[in-house]
Amino acid sequence: MTSTVITNIRTLVTNDPALGDGGPLGLVEDAAVVLDGDRVAWVGRAADAPAADSAYDAEGRAALPGFVDSHSHLLFGGDRTAEFNARMSGRPYTAGGIRTTVAATREAGDDELARNLRRFLDEARRQGTTTMETKSGYGLTPEQESRALRVAAGQTDEVTYMGAHIVAPEYADDPAAYVDLVTGPMLDACAPYARWVDVFCEKGAFDGDQARAVLTAGRAKGLVPRIHANQLSPGPGVRLAVELGAASADHCTHLGDADVDALADAEETVATLLPGCEFSTRAVYPDARRLLDAGATVALSTDCNPGSSFTSSMPFCVAIAVREMGMTPDEAVWSATAGGARALRRTDVGRLSPGARADLTLLDAPSHVHLAYRPGVPLTTRVWHRGTPVA
Ligand code: NIG
Ligand code: FE
Q: CB–CB of 327/379 below 8 Å?
């Protein structure tokens, strides 16, 4: 194994409160990090850094853990430019647009799906993302969903089965039969490739009882629940997530006091906010401040998908969360790294302290605050993934 010391880091975000300034970001000024193989071996002041096989001069830049993007939908064919265009002329976003992508995805070959996924994972990595979850949900048959997940399992270790994205067009007149398929033969075909099970709990998709059936069936097969909840309207999704101990309740845009209280008291369920979605659908942003003040754990993620949020950029999400959702820059950076790791129940990523995976993003800026201060500027200059420079 070879070691590298990255030195001359002006501001280092470790997300380890035991390190640095004692705050949640564990900031260390004038820092160095030693990577040994695929792990972080040492973190501290540059002046105290041990020798390593090679050295990299960060030239006074800021470093942070690679972003952990805990929610995306990258297994699809086609795109929805026309729908986006129409929306920007006033048409509202509904779950119905998903059908367009289902038709295009069913037409796409395995190679095309794999190439698309690779393209988006690489695109995200160039912007500092080193862990990315992705979901099925544009195939909606046992064969289509399982082949999409097989493709995903070859490229990322965070794979989610979402046969319950919408009711498949063939079952429009019999949604109960579709839920039986999703919780039966489709689940059997998909479970070997997935870690998580997800459902879109929303008017026009699945109601609370159906969502509960999907998540409990997935759990019985060893998958861990996460849920699309309270995105377009108030509903039972968030409270269901907390009740079932889901890893994450995602969107959380339309919340009542009982939803906020449930998330604040939740031991196991993270509130994942997806600002790219409200940006691209011209909707009202979720209120991160309300959740944080209540004591909820908040993650930020892109929701990258061709319909509601076609961005792979975590820096973009950080900037919007600060400008529009009441988060401080420190909170937003924590949520995009450590928060995402919590939402994926990972302790090896989202932090830079000894033993963590050697996933590190270097910004062409002296501080992580510039992610919000300099919106739209490509600040990511170098990315290490498992100890290897990848971008
Ligand atoms: O998270 N809400 C459901 N699913 C996606 C959108 C999918 C689509 O429009 O294609 C979301 O916003
Ligand atoms: Fe989503």
A: no
Q: Is 251 helix (H, G, I), strand (E, B) or coil?
A: strand
**How many whole angstroms from 63 Cα to the centroid of ligand 2?**
29
Q: 97 in ligand 1 pocket by Cβ < 6 Å?
A: yes
In order of 28, 75, 123, 293, the CA distances from 120 in angstroms are 32, 10, 5, 34
Q: Is 294 helix (H, G, I), strand (E, B) or coil?
A: helix
Per run of 10 residues, the mean pLDDT along the chain (length 391 residues) is 96 96 95 98 98 98 98 97 95 90 98 98 98 98 98 96 98 98 98 98 97 98 98 98 98 98 97 98 97 98 98 98 98 99 98 98 98 98 97 84
C-alpha gyration radius of the chain? 20
Predicted structure pTM score: 0.98
The domain spans of the chain are: 3-66+350-389, 68-343
Residues 6+ apart with CB under 8 A from 282: 87, 88, 93
From 1.10.10.10, 3.40.50.1000, 2.70.70.10, 3.20.20.140, which CATH number describes the 68-343 domain? 3.20.20.140
Which residue's C-alpha comes closest to atom 7 of ligand 1? 307
- Say how many Å lie between the CA of residue 315 and the centre of ligand 1: 20
**What pLDDT shows up at residue 20?**
87
CA distance 135 to 145: 10
Q: For ligand 1, say whether the CB of 305 is within 6 Å of any of its atoms.
A: yes
CB 212 less than 6 A from any atom of ligand 1: no
Task: Tokens for 90, please give them.
Answer: 């006033």
The dihedral over CA atoms of 186, 190, 192, 197, expressed in degrees to the nearest 10, equals -100
Q: What would the DSSP string read from start to end of 132-191?
A: E-EE--SS-SHHHHHHHHHHHHTT-S-EEEEEESS--GGGTT-HHHHHHHHHTHHHHHHG
Report the separation in Å between the CA atom of 93 and the middle of ligand 1, taken as the mean of its atom positions.
10
Cβ-contact 359, 385 below 8 angstroms: yes
Residue 376 Cα distances to 60, 67, 304, 318, angstroms: 21, 16, 17, 11
Give the integer Cα–Cα distance in Å for 339 and 298: 6
Structure tokens given for 119: 């393209």
CATH architecture of the region 3-66+350-389? Roll (2.30)
